[in-house]
Amino acid sequence: MTPSAYEPTHPTALAADAEAPPPSATATATFGMGCFWGPDARFGATPGVVRTRVGYAGGTEPDPSYYSLGDHTEVVQVEYNPDTVSYEALLDVFWANHAPFSAPLKRQYRGVVLAHDDQQCEAAKRTRDDLESRTGKAVETAIETLDQFYLAEDYHQKYELRSTPVVADELEDTYGDAFVDSTVAARLNGFVAGHGEDDEREALFAELDISPAALSEVRRRL
């Protein structure tokens, strides 16, 4: 990684992260929606989502990796503030952004809800049934209980943002190992992929303590 010449005012936590609720105050959802790069970006730009990460789940093989996936599926894990966004609202994003009526060609990319508790499982089944009733089509997406989540390799995390290296390098210099769980990184990962509303972007840009060069590169991607 190339060191950044810019020295942020808050080297350990940008303001948006300092204000984000801690993991103890969030809930977690896990979804398989095909290649996990896209869902990571889409959920990252969703208001109420605090953190995102991608990984492997839904299988039985221990310690999967990208090149030794076994029977696992690529998934995105979403930490969200339940006072701001509901699990049902996240399910709306989920159903609208994968192919629920198509059987997966590969287990790696299947659509699946991996519920963290009975309430999530019931909500997923209810919304699945509603989708089938509205469309008259059978949903192929699986609904299962999450057993274990395995974090994917660093180069998969915030992939769209990493494709903007001026910004990603600066944020990794700022956050170190905390980059993956940064709210700022999640938002910017979504914004550079084309998600989010203009007012949401500008509100974040106004409080970001990043270099002018990095901010300019983010705007170039919009």
The H/E string reads HEHEEHEHEEHHHHH
User: What is the gyration radius calculated from CA atoms?
Assistant: 18 Å
Structural class: alpha+beta
Mean pLDDT rating = 91
| CATH topology type of the largest domain | Peptide Methionine Sulfoxide Reductase, Chain A
Describe the protein:
It is a single chain. The chain has two domains: about 20-150, Peptide Methionine Sulfoxide Reductase, Chain A (2-Layer Sandwich); about 155-220, no CATH class. It is about 40% helix and about 15% strand. The protein has nine helices and six strands; from the N terminus they run αβαββαβαββααααα. The protein has helices at about 15-20, 35-45, 85-95, 120-135, 160, 165-175, 185-190, 200-205, 210-220, and strands at about 25-35, 50-55, 75-80, 110-115, 140-145, 150. A six-stranded mixed β-sheet has the order 5-4-1-3-2-6, with helices on one face.
